[in-house]
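Supplementary Methods. Inverse-folding protocol.

Structures were first reduced to a discrete structure-token string of length 300. This string, shown here, constituted the complete conditioning input.
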């Protein structure tokens, strides 16, 4: 089921659009102008936007420009224009701005549903490809780490085949260090969308006791500062070779925990974060660890 935002100032038409899209099995949000639409996009992160062009307060072109220039996290979200003007110049202008499709008024509702389904299938293909890349990189890192451990304990051994690690996103282990607050709860909710295998530790000692039972995993460190953070990083570097440690900060006032200077380049994450941005960062972090420990060719 997809979430679609319908932005249209004509109430009767908006009601008809919502009804048709809901009957097709979608969850539909509504806004009557671009300003309300932008607020709902930022809050709800819909899968697709269907937007009128001529509206009060903020029109469709202004909304699209705002999204494409100031909110790159929504660059892959399909954006469709509803318009009574679909001449060549209007279409070219929209394409240059980054619109994905046009639907002319009066609306052909069968065509609307067909175009929405088509755009959502395209997005799903992109998401699946990115997920496959993340899983493949994780498999490669897990394989190299197992070989490295085998070499250290029993002499040289052949590299394990990638298919010895038949993981999905659901099975990639996630560890969180920190005290639970609202900010961290929201981050965990984002993680659980794709990574339900999450363990939260408020005491690092408990983590190190269970470390031997963990495969390659991500560690998100939240709310540690100063000497406490530095000591944890040093212990991770010494005893947790199978981890990718990430320092989590909050966006408010540009706040970063004191001690983040001990993070290696690229090993930080600023909240709030979208699921898509999180996965993109995870790919980068795995590639960085592969390049650092096993050579740049392994991160290609």
């Amino acid at each position: 089921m997809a979430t679609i935002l319908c932005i249209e100032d004509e109430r009767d038409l908006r009601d008809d659009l919502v009804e048709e899209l809901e009957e097709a099995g979608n969850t539909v949000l509504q806004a009557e102008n671009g300003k309300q639409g932008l607020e709902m996009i930022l809050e709800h992160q819909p899968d697709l936007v269907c937007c009128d062009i001529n509206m009060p307060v903020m029109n469709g072109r202004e909304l699209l420009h705002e999204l494409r220039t100031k909110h790159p996290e929504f660059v892959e979200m399909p954006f469709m224009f509803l318009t009574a003007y679909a001449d060549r110049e209007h279409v070219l202008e929209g394409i240059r701005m980054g619109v994905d499709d046009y639907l002319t008024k009066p609306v052909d509702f069968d065509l609307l549903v067909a175009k929405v389904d088509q755009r959502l299938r395209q997005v799903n293909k992109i998401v699946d490809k990115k997920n496959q890349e993340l899983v493949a990189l994780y498999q490669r890192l897990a394989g190299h780490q197992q070989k490295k451990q085998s070499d250290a304990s029993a002499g040289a051994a052949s590299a394990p085949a990638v298919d010895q690690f038949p993981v999905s996103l659901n099975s990639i282990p996630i560890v969180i260090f920190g005290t639970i607050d609202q900010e961290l709860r929201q981050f965990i909710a984002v993680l659980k969308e794709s990574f339900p295998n999450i363990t939260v530790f408020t005491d690092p000692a408990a983590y190190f006791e269970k470390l031997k039972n963990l495969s390659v995993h991500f560690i998100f460190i939240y709310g540690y500062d100063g000497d406490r953070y530095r000591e944890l990083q040093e212990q991770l570097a010494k005893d947790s070779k199978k981890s990718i440690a990430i320092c989590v900060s909050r966006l408010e006032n540009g706040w970063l925990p004191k001690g983040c200077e001990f993070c290696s380049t690229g090993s930080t994450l600023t909240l709030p974060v979208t699921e898509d941005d999180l996965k993109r960062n995870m790919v980068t972090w795995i590639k960085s660890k592969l390049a650092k420990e096993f050579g740049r060719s392994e991160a290609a």
